[in-house]
Design goal:
With 61 residues, this protein is an all-alpha fold. The chain is built from 2 helices and no strands. The protein has helices at residues 2-22, 24-34. α1 (2-22) packs across α2 (24-34). It is rod-shaped and about 65 Å long.
Length: 61
C-alpha cells in the first residue's frame, strides 16, 4: 500500500514536470485555473526612449 502511494506521488511529480516542459502555455493556464499560479510584480514603465534607464526625460543619446 505504501509503495503504491509513493509510486503515484512520483508519477504525479513527473507528469507535472513534463507538462510544464512540453506544454508551457497549457500548464500556465491549468495553474491559473487551479489557483496556484505564481504572483508576479506589476511592470513599471521606465522613463526615456525604449525603456532606456539612462535617459533623463530628454532626448535619446
Amino acid at each position: 500500500m505504501t509503495q503504491s502511494i509513493i509510486v503515484i506521488v512520483l508519477v504525479g511529480i513527473a507528469l507535472a514536470f513534463w507538462l510544464n516542459r512540453l506544454f508551457p502555455l497549457q500548464a500556465a493556464r491549468l495553474r491559473t485555473q487551479l489557483g496556484i499560479a505564481r504572483q508576479t510584480a506589476p511592470q513599471t514603465q521606465k522613463k526615456g526612449c525604449n525603456s532606456c534607464d539612462r535617459c533623463k526625460g530628454g532626448g535619446c543619446h
